[in-house]
Amino acid sequence: MAQEELNQAVSGEYTLGFEIDIEQDTVPPGLDEGVIAFISRKKDEPQWMLDLRLKAFAKWQQMEEPHWGHLDYTPIDYQSISYFSAPKQAPESLDEVDPKILEAYSKLGIPLEEQKQLQGIAVDAVVDSVSVKTTFSKELEAKGIIFCSISEAIRDYPELIQKYMFSVVPMTDNYFAALNSAVFTDGTFVYIPPNTRCPMELSTYFRINALNTGQFERTLIVADTGSYVSYNEGCSAPTRDENQLHAAVVELIAMDDAEIKYSTIQNWYPGDENGKGGIYNFVTKRGICETNAKISWTQVETGSAITWKYPSCILKGDNSVGEFYSVAVTTLAQQADTGTKMIHLGKNTSSTIISKGISAMKGQNTYRGLVKIGAHAEGARNYSECDSLLIGDRCGAHTFPYLESKDPHGQVEHEATTSKISDEQLFYLRQRGIGEEDAVSMIVHGFCKDVFTQLPMEYAVEAKALLELTLEGSVG
Amino acid sequence: MKLATLRDRTPELIAGEWGLHPDRIPALEAFCALPFPDKKSETYRYADTQEIFDTERTRIIPQQGEVAPDPRRVVIVDGVVVSAPDGVAIAFEETDAATKGHFDPLYSLSHALSAPTIVLHPTEVDTLEIQHRYTQPDALLAYRIRIETTANTSVQVYESFFDAQATGSVILYGIDVRVARDATLRWIKNQTLGSTHSRVFASHYADVGENGTLDLSTYDFGSGQGLATLEVVLDAHAISSLHHLVYATEQARRGTVSRVIHRGHHSHSDQVAKNILRHDARGIFDALIKVEHSAPKTIAHQNNQAVLLDEGAYMASKPQLEIYIDDLEASHGSTTGQLDPKALFYLRSRGIGEEEAKKMLILAFANTLIDRIEDKVLREWIHQSFEAVYYGQSHVACLETCHGCEENALGAFSVNS
Amino acid sequence: MSILEIKNIKANIGEKNILKGLNLSLEKGKVHAIMGPNGAGKSTLSKTIVGHYDVDVTGGDILLRGESILEMEPEERALEGIFLSFQHPVEIPGVSNAYFLRTAVNAKRVHEGKEELNAAEFLREMKKTAETLGMKPEMISRSLNEGFSGGEKKRNEILQMQMLHPDVILLDEIDSGLDIDALRAVSEGINAMKDGERTFLVITHYSRILDYIEPDYIHVLKDGQIVHTGGPELVAQLEEKGYESIGAAG
Q1: Which of A74, A119, A368, C149 could be joined to A339 by an S-S link, Cβ 3.0–4.6 Å?
Q2: Which of C77, C89, C93 has its CB closest to that of A428?
Q3: Topology annotation, domain C2-245
């Protein structure tokens, strides 16, 4: 395939780059204790939360930005970012939500109402710093399930928040987590009571809209003993020339016999092919599994200029299970350094890692993963498979696993391959009359299949379409 | 001298304090530009850097003198070449020629501290045996060797180490080798370290020319602490074949850290490591394959297998691929586990006791890397080294103290074999 | 009437010149067989016709219904009705057999100005066809050729052939690696396609397959050229006396 055609094929235009024209309430750029107090006040938070924020801010100021990732970017000026932006009208119910926001969501294929309701999915939507709408709360309440914005949870469920927030990702876990702890503006809180199976998919949609704004959401999911929940998040941002920072924290707690399935479709604005603009995505996601619990992370990462994220599992309880399924695409000038950490502490714990990296144009894609089998994790097992697909000769694919085992009864297995789309496969499909771009897309889908099958059905369709869009450009 | 005094110093300051020749400044600059080795640096994570850097040791500066003739090998005692066979040209080079950009700070440091470089060029022989002997306790010794090869030739290098008297010493040594175009270098390193022996930090660099082949096999046995780092750069059609066998016991710490860089097109690398860890031994396999944009049609494969035999054993495995071209074939695999329970059961069902069955499987696991040595005598020799440690016999000590034994074992390995 | 005309074609694979001015005319509705020793250029010939990336055409022309196809992309040649049953069909993990074939069938239908088949219609037809070839139902949903046995792969090639309705069918060593049952199923599948309109080019080293698919013409390929053309009686002569007995290349 000629290089120009290939480039055209893989430079799918970012179609979610529109700006929502709504009135914003935004603080001027800059970060100090005053801004943090302002955020806390805007959120109507209790004093204890503000104290925690200020504590995190003090620690953050003493920390250094990490640079061990295989990433190259212009330094972030933390004083040029605005740390709070909200639509001016705070909506109380769906009827009050600015019609422009609703329109924006349907443009994104996320109609808050009909469609998702028909599909039985409860949605929380976050624009910039504020949760604008949570659907289905009433229906969920009947089962004792809490699904609300984190700001509401801080006001309404202080005991749960005080008990679990920072319990999986301590506020000083890393530089970006500390920043998030100080300035987080919104996010989602989920609590599933014991022995309850959440009857529907829960979903949050994040969007950065305002100019010069960072997004710092915080998500906390607590699945009590014997419960089950499947949670999905999606994200997008308008096309802008300058970089915007997204530093989120997600904490999952799966108590004994509980299961959490967490799926992400990340489609932040990736910047252009010269590396101009795009989201800097520095995210900390971690879950803890008690006895017999299971946490499964699935991510499809197609956006962002820079991605730095490692959804992890601490397998603390015996027989607990951690899973990580990932498709990461870097095209244009995108860089991703992503993977997972599986920390085996309990006996007979097991983890599976399936990572598929696709690099095209000038994209640099790095898998970085840690598997650690502790000395007491007798009989622990891990299997990792990390494959990279390269399209074009200017991109890069890197695989950096760290495999550490202290257990003579355990088993750690890692396999990785790096290759381009085989000429033979491409030719076979073309001989059957399938056009070149369709053939490439078919092979890429095949490559990602093991991950897509982990997504809930509606999201698998979305992920597939997104991948096609990202990689195929005009091909429909 | 304490190595810790190197921390936070400028190259000029170090050169002054350690009395180094000004031409070592570039090597010191390279050393200072990299993070100072400590627990936080991946490469030295398990190397007990504190003890190594903070302990006062007597620095030995090798003084090269007359080289006596030797029927078969180059003998280097505490960094001084004492004897060598006829067919090996020996030179001592005062000016240093460290390769820039080596990832290991101790590579640059050993270049800076060593003087002069020992240059070995096997001109009329196709085997080069190097015997390293360390005799001083609590010493700090740095020396470097460069091996030259001639285009279109094939050379076999065999390295062995005798260090039982060098308790508490830290040895920084390493080999720089240039494999000429169309040349082949087969390099076997056989090192058994006891817990009371010296700590050996080897840092190597190999530049493999067009169509050249580097075939390196390392055999690391015993309970001591050792770390070997290696950077290989491959030109077009060059081949690198690396094999590492580690059998570590007691409190051993053994690290194999490598960077294989594919710079030329059609270059080919494969790497196989096997770590067998007993007691509280720790093994580190940290190996990067980098395929640069200039290296299309590269083939690179890497595999690491580790067997943990006891509760205290610990393996850290970091196989890495860093790839900047699409037209290639690359893979790596890593497994850490125990002996295959099915195989074990099979043997036991045939009436073989559990311990004996385990031994059979361990030997079988190790033998695949030992049996690839073509030279029968060398192969037998490695087998003996392995079994000496495996069965706990003082075979190695015997080789060292009893010359009859040593001559006997080595006798069959003639320079012309 | 000739449907495919190969005129003085010269082709290289890498640096090596394989086809050295080969001439061949395929008559519409007939079964042609190309026989020749190893290394004669049989596989290169089929690769040249379908536009394989390994082949570098240095001279001559190939005409399909009188039009040159040399400038056409592989998929364009396929849509024009050329089908190659590969000697070694490639495995494509993660791409289901049904999804792949439906894409191919609909590409062909769109090319012919027909409506695309929906999933249900397509699956019905695919299942029916697979059944007649003695294929297990699960082959439909499995990944394309992945983990298929030699026989299963060849049956899958025939399945695709039957679903795509090509006009010119190239069968490259279709019988290699087949046991007698598979060979019978595969040749029945091929014979079912014979309708007096379709043209076949059977490329083979051994005459065994020609007991099942009766050829109208035999062409002997040696050293990159067709050195002899005859009727089915030529098979017996080749069997008996070998390729040496046929005149040397000019």
Answers
A1: A368
A2: C89
A3: Rossmann fold (3.40.50)
What average pLDDT is seen over chain A? 84
Residue B150: other Cβ atoms inside 10 A: 13
Q: How confident is the model at residue B156 (pLDDT cuts 50, 70, 90)?
A: very high
Task: Encode pLDDT of A447-470 as tens digits.
Answer: 999 998 888 877 787 788 778 777
Q: Which of B278, B326, B331, B339 to mutate to test the interface with A (most CBs of A within 10 A)?
A: B326
Contacts C144 to A, Cβ<8 Å: 446
Bridge partner residues of C4 (DSSP): C26, C64
Of A422, A425, A434, the CB nearest to C103: A434
pLDDT digits (tens, 9 = 90+) for B212-271: 999 999 999 998 888 999 999 999 999 999 999 999 999 999 999 999 999 999 999 999
Residue A314: CB atoms within 10 A of its CB come to 23
Which of B293, B311, B336 has its CB closest to that of A403? Answer: B336
State the ipTM, two decimals.
0.86
Distance between CA atoms of residues A301 and A299, nearest Å: 6
Cross-chain Cβ contact A428/C90 below 8 Å: yes
Average pLDDT over residues B60-64: 91
Contact A9, A358 (CB under 8 A): no
**Do residues A236 and A272 make contact, with C-beta atoms less than 8 angstroms apart?**
no
Residue A240's pLDDT is 62
| CA–CA distance, A154 with B72 (Å, rounded to integer) | 80
Residues with Cβ within 8 Å of residue C14, at least 6 apart in sequence: C54
B377 to each of A201, B154, B244, B246, B405, how far by Cα in Å? 68, 18, 19, 20, 15
Count of other CB atoms within 10 angstroms of residue B44: 26
- Residue C92 to residue A429, Cβ atoms within 8 A: yes
Q: Minimal CA–CA distance to B135: which of B160, B161, B172?
A: B161
Evaluate if residue B356 carries a pLDDT over 60.
yes
Structural domain boundaries in chain C: 2-245
With tokens 């604008």, the residue in question is: A132
Can you give the length of chain A in residues? 476
Other Cβ atoms less than 10 A from the Cβ of A242: the count is 11
The amino acid present at A221, given as its one-letter code, is: I
Domain ranges, ordered by start, for chain B: 3-338
Residue given tokens 């196809």 in the structure block = C69
- Chains C and B in direct contact, meaning 3 or more beta-carbon pairs closer than 8 angstroms: no
Phi (first) and psi of residue C89, to 5 degrees:
-60, 135
Is the pLDDT reported for residue C244 higher than 80? Answer: no
Answer whether C25's CB lies under 8 Å from C2's CB. yes
Q: C148-156: list long-range contacts, CB under 8 Å, 24+ apart.
A: C148/C89, C148/C91, C150/C176, C150/C177, C150/C178, C150/C182, C151/C177, C151/C178, C151/C179, C151/C181, C151/C182, C151/C186, C153/C89, C154/C85, C154/C89, C154/C178, C154/C182, C154/C186, C155/C182, C155/C185, C155/C186, C155/C189, C156/C89, C156/C97
| DSSP H stretches of helix in B74-170 | 105-113
Kindly state the tokens that stand for A106: 């349907």
Question: Has residue B209 got a pLDDT over 50?
Answer: yes
What integer pLDDT is reported at residue A12 of this predicted model? Answer: 54
Please compute the mean of the pLDDT values over residues B325-352 and round it to a whole number: 87
| Alpha carbon of residue B236 to chain centroid | 25
Give the count of beta carbons closer than 10 Å to the beta carbon of residue B404. Answer: 8
pLDDT band at A177; cut points 50, 70, 90? very high
Chain C residue with the nearest C-alpha to that of A447: C94
pLDDT score for C247:
58
A346: containing domain: 3-472
Residues C73, A430: C-beta atoms closer than 8 Å:
yes
Q: How far apart are CA C170 and CA C45, in angstroms?
A: 10
